[in-house]
Amino acid sequence: MWNAMRTFEAGDFSSWLREGNFIIEPFATYYVLLGFHAIGMAVVVGICFMLSSRILGFQLVVSMAAARHMLRLAWWGFWLNLASGVLLILAQPRREFMTELFWVKMAVIVWAVLAMRSMGRGLAAVRPVADARGGVVELAPWSLRVTALMVDLGWLLAIVSGRLVGYTQPPPPL
Ligand code: HEM
């Protein structure tokens, strides 16, 4: 497996991801991919933080239906993150897999994704109740509030560990 990865890294595709240009100079492919990775991160993490603030009781004017709609956009951010992340791995798979924090990051991403799915199910289950002034309000139960905090914590740890991967990587193996 290790040898197969070494051969792959020496090939044209992996070399282009690592050292080539994205169409024209000076747009290095690796940095363009990091750019897409950052955009995906901003979309998924930004929307999840916004939704969790709604779940925790801020911006009560936002309906749960609107929140669920936004969650769909958050998933698009995640898919962009996944696609760019896989290409970043293919640029130097051995170096990534040798970095301990890379595996920590993968574990917290699994955690955040599971919590995000559960947050989506929780949003769908919230029912409107009458408030003191005769209106209706959609209040999230405590279980959903805890899930929203788990989503936020998962993404925060993914950001921190993601950046630390770059600082703690060993030199490229021979
Ligand atoms: C979904 C699967 C993902 C994969 C396979 C993946 C993979 C990667 C890889 C290979 C790198 C380059 C690491 C390096 O050598 O410096 C990277 C960078 C990074 N990733 Fe991810 N990633 C994923 C999702 C995420 C998510 C969800 C977040 C945050 C919410 C995130 C945050 C970061 C950060 C902060 C960096 C460093 C960016 C920089 O150096 O400018 N990643 N990721």
TrEMBL record:
InterPro entries: Cyt_c_oxase-like_su1_sf (IPR036927). Keywords: Membrane, Transmembrane, Transmembrane helix. It comes from the Bacteria. The chain crosses the membrane at residues 28-52, 73-91, 97-116. Gene3D superfamilies: Cytochrome c oxidase-like, subunit I domain (1.20.210.10). This is DUF2214 domain-containing protein. It comes from Alsobacter ponti.
